[in-house]
Automatic annotation (TrEMBL):
PANTHER family: OS08G0299200 PROTEIN (PTHR34948), TRIPHOSPHATE TUNEL METALLOENZYME 3-LIKE (PTHR34948:SF4). PROSITE patterns: CYTH. Residues 1-199 form the CYTH domain. GO terms for molecular function: pyrophosphatase activity. The lineage of its organism: Eukaryota, Viridiplantae, Streptophyta, Embryophyta, Tracheophyta. Gene3D superfamilies: Hypothetical Protein Pfu-838710-001 (2.40.320.10). It comes from Ipomoea nil. This is Adenylate cyclase.
């Protein structure tokens, strides 16, 4: 179970202000590309699951993940998540031709997709995806991830923090934002849900 604090920032100015405040704590910045898949008959999405390939920093790394049963409330997200490393070359081939995913040998997640979700003869389809620029910061014992997410229909901004004590982490992050007069709100949906909706959340359009 992945548990994260997720707070949405209203615009690029707020994102830049937060990045500046956190600059002394900056560890690294990742350029991510996220590509999503579903069964041809919606076998995954109908069960609140999604299969994702994430490419890092010009294909220097690729991670395949299966996420399921997301719940987000009061700025805290809980979701079942399983991840594995994948050769980026294989990942790119699968992104171009989704049928290749089900042929990957020795991949626990692929085996789960086939067995648990009973993907039919039509196999998998690619849903498309989005790009994300993620700044990673180590601050007060927390790993903060500040995202600038580029969808085809606009750009979203968010701060995420995975924590075993999410309420404590959320309070610390809110204090940071409030003390620096940075506006924010609790994220109500995931980036994937925003991507699938085809529009940014209403208050940020």
């Amino acid at each position: 179970m992945e548990v994260e604090v997720k707070l949405r920032l209203p615009d690029s100015a707020s994102h830049q202000r937060l990045s500046t405040v956190l600059s002394p704590y900056h560890l690294k910045t990742h350029a991510q590309e996220n590509v999503f898949f579903d069964g041809a008959s919606a076998e995954l999405s109908s069960n609140l699951a999604v299969l994702r390939l994430r490419f890092y920093d010009l294909d220097s790394r690729c991670v395949i993940s299966l996420k399921a049963k997301p719940v987000i409330s009061n700025g805290i997200s809980r979701i079942e998540e399983d991840e594995e490393q994948l050769d980026p070359t294989i990942g790119r081939a699968c992104a171009a031709e989704p049928w290749r995913l089900l042929l990957i040998d020795g991949c626990r997640i692929v085996e789960r997709v086939k067995s648990e979700y009973e993907i039919g003869e039509k196999g998998l389809v690619c849903l498309g995806g989005f790009r994300n620029l993620r700044g990673v910061y180590e601050w007060k014992g927390l790993k903060l991830e500040v995202d600038e997410t580029h969808y085809d229909f606009g750009t979203g901004y968010e701060i995420e923090c995975e924590s075993s004590e999410p309420e404590i982490a959320k309070n610390l992050i809110e204090e940071l934002l409030n003390s620096n007069e940075i506006q924010y709100s609790y994220s109500e949906v995931s980036k994937f849900a925003i991507f699938r909706s085809g529009k940014l959340p209403h208050q940020y359009q």
